[in-house]
Amino acid sequence: MFNSHSIEVRKLTKKFGSFTAVNEISFDTEKGEIFGFLGANGAGKSTAIKMLCGLWTPTSGEAKVAGFDIYKENEKIKRRIGYMSQKFSLYQDLTARENIRFYAGIYGMPDTKIKEKTEVLLDRLKLSEFADVQINSLPLGWKQKLAFSVAVFHEPEIVFLDEPTGGVDPVTRRDFWEMIYDTAKLGTTIFVTTHYMDESEYCDRISIMVDGRIEALGSPIELKERYDSKTMDEVFVKLARPAAIK
Amino acid sequence: MKRFIAFVRKEFHHILRDWRTLIILFGMPIIQILLFGFAITNEIKDASIAILDQANDAHSKALINKILSTDYFKLEQYLSNQSQIEPVFRKGKVKEVIIFERDFSQKLDKEKISGIQLLADATDPNTATIILNYTQGIIAGYQADQNVLSRLPFNIQVQTEMFYNKELKGVYLFVPGLIAIILMLVSAMMTSISITKEKEFGTMEILLATPMRPGIIIIAKVIPYLLLSFINALIILTLGYFVFGVPVHGSITLLLFEMILFVLTVLSLGIFISTVTSSQQVALMASLMGLMLPTILLSGFIFPIENMPLLLQIISNIVPAKWFIIIIKNIMLKGTGLAIIWEETLIIFGFMIFFISLSVKNFKPRLA
Fold it and tell me: Do B250 and B328 contact (CB within 8 A), yes or no?
């Protein structure tokens, strides 16, 4: 069953003192699936992602990423995943080419392959002209696209995107999602957190987190039917409102 | 290994691209050593003095002549009475007033005793002490000359010699101290800042999600700074040697070995700082306040540790630079070998182990 599930999570929990950030969440993702993680700020999305990437140890529960146990086989997992965090994750004082080369280098990709792929990528991003300028002078949208490309450059089985489109204009967001589709088509599982409701419509399946729990999980169409709503926005409000009032 | 090289290469990109820091990094030691070497000195030259010669006779004139014939003193003015002394000091230029009593020669020849009063401006106590010592030295010399002529029953002739630094050059003291301070600054401050920078910008998180092991990340980050500090230390040594003639009497190999040991120690200190701080600002302040001040004030670089209050003397023991300065002074000026400085070396080694284990202990939970 590991062959089909790229991520398996069972009752995963993370507590910080008496505060439970992630409360017994369980779900599976399929290979090549775009799996959305929705939730208000502080609902526990980033904490969940950090546990799956091996940055934090869970308090309890079990999880397998790419078929490897997150407690014991951390190193093997890290070789098979890509991660793009909330904060902008490239080095501002390096050029696009240097950033690519650095990240590809620390994943141990062979030099010839790095060179080959770099040119293809720069060409696709229409960044060839700007490949050798320090990226702090590039617009944010381009930087985010580049950051995503770098996160999947070493062809990971799963890529974790923590609010990748924060602060990006709608046009670039659309470009961004096209890149996500292209990557998923190649068989990479996309695990993406967001709080843009329109983006959630692009996902194959969505889980909605409220106060550290997964309150609902399913495809956008299923969820809208189940909660008798026209948009994902409505679904989310219906689920999140009780928590907010509390 | 290839991944490691990729990392080190990136680190060099950071350093070389930040040319402002680079200028400070290499400019500062050069400027400091030139400043300390040329401008800051404990020697007295052409200090202004005033003389109130109430005797105005053979001995007083001969003595004044002798005093003014040295490079140390320059006559500002002759005073004519006591009431002028205070105003002359107030003006600030005159550092010392020499007063000869009335009938100086007569008393000296007949009663074999006579008096000179020395008054010094002690707003700067060090200078005042040195000026008084010089003057007394000249007077004693004059007295000795006279005694030889008059053949006293007995006569002790004092011969002094300054070992290891014959001319009492301040720069001999500053070069070892500067090496310690520059190594401290570059190694500890720069590493702690560069590591916290990754934390602050969120790139550390990404790095920790890659297959690079945390320990390897830190080592790769530290290596360029190890190299830079070492180059810096060599620059200071070379400048000291060629511009100021500060010798290296001992083994160069031993000196380089001790420098690497000290660099590793402060690097681990820098890593430790970066594990307990999360912003560059805090790391900078912690390095400056926590490292630079104690290093400058308590390492014996400027102020002799033996003259400090007991409490400060005890505290000075936990300043790694103190031990390092003892070591390199010994190697450079006295030419001693490891046989004599092994204790200090061991202490620095102990500091290194201590900071490394502290960093490891602090770093772990952040990854977990």
Answer: no
- 3-state secondary structure at position A27: strand
**Helix (H), strand (E), coil (C) string for A52-110:** HCCCCCCCEEEEEECCEECCCCHHHHHHHEEEECCCCCCCCCCEHHHHHHHHHHHCCCC
Token pair 């620059």 is found at B235
Angle between helix B214-244 and helix B191-201 axes, rounded to 10 deg: 140
Question: Using a CB-CB distance cutoff of 8 angstroms, which residues of chain B are in contact with residue A98?
Answer: 10, 13
Å between B192 CA and nearest CA of chain A: 18
Chain A: residue nearest B10 by CA?
Answer: A102
DSSP 8-state code for residue A134: B
Domains in chain B, start-ordered, CATH in brackets? 47-163 (3.40.1710.10), 169-367 (no CATH)
- Cβ separation B211–A108 shorter than 8 A: yes
* Cβ pairs bridging A and B (under 8 Å): 80
pTM beyond cutoff 0.80: no
Residue of A94, A54, A101, A95 whose CA lies nearest to B2: A101
Q: Which of A75, A88, A98 sits opposite B211 (nearest CB)?
A: A75
Question: pLDDT tens string for chain B (368 positions)?
Answer: 888 999 999 999 998 888 888 888 888 888 888 887 777 666 677 889 999 998 888 888 999 999 999 888 999 899 988 898 999 999 888 999 999 988 888 888 888 888 899 999 988 887 888 888 889 888 888 888 877 766 666 667 677 777 877 666 777 878 888 888 888 877 888 888 888 888 888 888 888 888 888 888 888 988 998 888 888 888 888 888 888 888 889 899 999 999 999 999 999 999 888 888 888 888 888 888 888 888 888 888 878 888 888 998 998 999 999 999 999 999 998 888 888 899 999 999 999 999 988 888 776 544 44
Centre a 10 Å sphere on the Cβ of residue B173 and count the other Cβ atoms it contains. Answer: 21
Please name the member of A83, A105, A134 whose beta carbon is closest to the beta carbon of B206: A83
- Distance (Å) from the alpha carbon of A85 to chain B's nearest alpha carbon: 7
Contacts of B5 in chain A (CB under 8 A): 105
Q: Which residue of B4, B12, B13 to mutate against A (max A Cβ within 10 Å)?
A: B13
Q: How far away is chain B from the Cα of A222, in angstroms, using its nearest Cα?
A: 33
Nearest Cβ partner for B13 among A56, A89, A94: A94
| Chain B residue closest in CA terms to A52 | B209
Q: What is the ipTM for the molecules in this complex?
A: 0.86
